[in-house]
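[step 3/7] inverse_fold.run input=structure_tokens len=428
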């Protein structure tokens, strides 16, 4: 690296990669399925007579498959580089997502299984287009401003939460739900993929910020087997699982929840857009705070915010302003949680085996985010209300946030003995 490059800031060097990553996250398999599934409930019920549980089950199928494949895709990124993994998976996700538009029109029982099979394919090929891949490159470009950079990267999910709820119901209303799958698939294929092809890459050894590698140029960090023996790994894993189990179902079922309270589909779409704005704010604010303060005092209060959302949604009468407030707080905490997964992986376990460790920590996020919509839908189908599951979620948010208070300080050295860069200490 030249002297001039050394004097340039991390954002000056890495902004192009960060831009490509934001679009990759936005158009990838992490936010898009979650953002469209709620809007398919009414048209699929009308056309096929399926139950809510049957309609949201594809998210569970997709999420379970993707979750168990996350460590494998993380290993691929560690072994072969993040660029080919992210771009190939993004292309495959777009094509498989578009294929849902070719669903048969018959009401035969086999149609439901075809629908599930297509979602299985989306899960098999799409996980490399999630933050499992994109965040590895960002962690390698940024150290001092890592929290902010990861927050900006994961703004992709909030952008999806703004764009897709605006786009999906309008396409469904004008052209049908099949066309919606084809139109939304253009986002990964025609927006993120071209930009990623030209701009997305890992830094060379000379471009890496100081503190990521040993004097010999080797990235520092613990192995996956070492991380699995560390109590902090399992505290993070459990916290992610608890929060994801509470949030995923609320997010997917929110349009239906609001419909039960007399709020129509377009107004519910507006609430989902506000939720996206909450995610946007949560990403940036959480990232800025993580660069200044220890994660525990940042994470706990932010992850408790959705408990307020649950209390609002449990009310006998939910007005539009209250629904907007509930959506914003729910989104804000979701933004904080996703920031934390990537940030804590790098800070507590290093970058040498980041992909595999992040993949293992992404597993509970994907798995319980996938199971949660099914739990919410099942409660609604059997009791006629979401109230029971909202009470459980209210407690889960508080418990999940509290677990992160037990992690302790960031490590000063990894097994290699190399000192760890401590940007928080420098900033404080």
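[step 3/7] decode complete -> sequence:
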């Amino acid at each position: 690296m030249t002297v001039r490059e050394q004097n340039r800031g991390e954002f000056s060097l890495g902004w192009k990669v960060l831009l490509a990553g934001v679009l990759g996250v936005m158009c990838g398999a992490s936010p898009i399925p979650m953002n469209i599934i709620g809007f398919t409930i009414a048209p699929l019920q009308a056309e096929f007579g399926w139950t809510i549980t049957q309609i949201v089950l594809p998210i569970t199928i997709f999420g379970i498959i993707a979750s168990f494949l996350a460590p494998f895709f993380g290993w691929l990124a560690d072994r072969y580089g993040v660029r080919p993994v992210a771009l190939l998976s993004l292309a495959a996700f777009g094509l498989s997502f578009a294929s849902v538009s070719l669903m048969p029109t018959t009401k035969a029982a086999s149609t439901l299984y075809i629908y599930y099979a297509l979602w299985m394919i989306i899960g098999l090929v799409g996980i490399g287009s999630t933050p499992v891949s994109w965040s590895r490159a960002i962690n390698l470009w940024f150290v001092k401003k890592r929290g902010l950079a990861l927050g900006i990267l994961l703004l992709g999910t909030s952008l999806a939460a703004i764009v897709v709820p605006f786009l999906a119901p309008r396409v469904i209303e004008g052209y049908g739900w099949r066309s919606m799958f084809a139109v939304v698939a253009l986002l990964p294929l025609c927006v993120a993929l071209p930009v990623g092809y030209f701009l997305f890459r890992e830094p060379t050894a000379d471009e890496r910020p100081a503190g990521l590698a040993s004097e010999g140029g080797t990235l520092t960090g613990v192995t996956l087997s070492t991380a699995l023996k560390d109590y902090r790994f399992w505290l993070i894993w459990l916290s992610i699982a608890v929060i994801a189990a509470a949030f995923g179902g609320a997010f997917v079922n929110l349009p239906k929840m609001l419909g039960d309270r007399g709020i129509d589909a377009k107004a519910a779409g507006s609430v989902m857009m506000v939720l996206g704005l909450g995610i946007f704010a949560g990403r940036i604010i959480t990232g800025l705070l993580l660069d200044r303060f220890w994660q525990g005092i940042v994470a706990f209060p932010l992850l408790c915010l959705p408990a307020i959302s649950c209390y609002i949604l449990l009310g006998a009468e939910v007005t539009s302003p209250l629904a907007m407030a509930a959506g914003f707080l729910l989104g804000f905490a979701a933004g904080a949680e996703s920031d934390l997964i990537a940030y804590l992986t790098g800070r507590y376990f290093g970058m040498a085996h980041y992909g595999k460790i992040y993949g293992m920590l992404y597993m509970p996020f994907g798995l319980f985010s996938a199971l949660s919509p099914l739990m919410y839908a099942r409660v609604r189908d059997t009791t006629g209300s979401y109230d029971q599951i909202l009470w459980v979620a209210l407690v889960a948010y508080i418990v999940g946030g509290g677990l992160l208070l037990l992690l302790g300080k960031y490590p000063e050295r990894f097994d290699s003995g190399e000192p760890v860069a401590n940007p928080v200490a420098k900033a404080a």
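[step 4/7] annotate
The domain at 16-198+219-427 is CATH 1.20.1250.20 (Growth Hormone; Chain: A;).
The chain has a mean pLDDT of 84.
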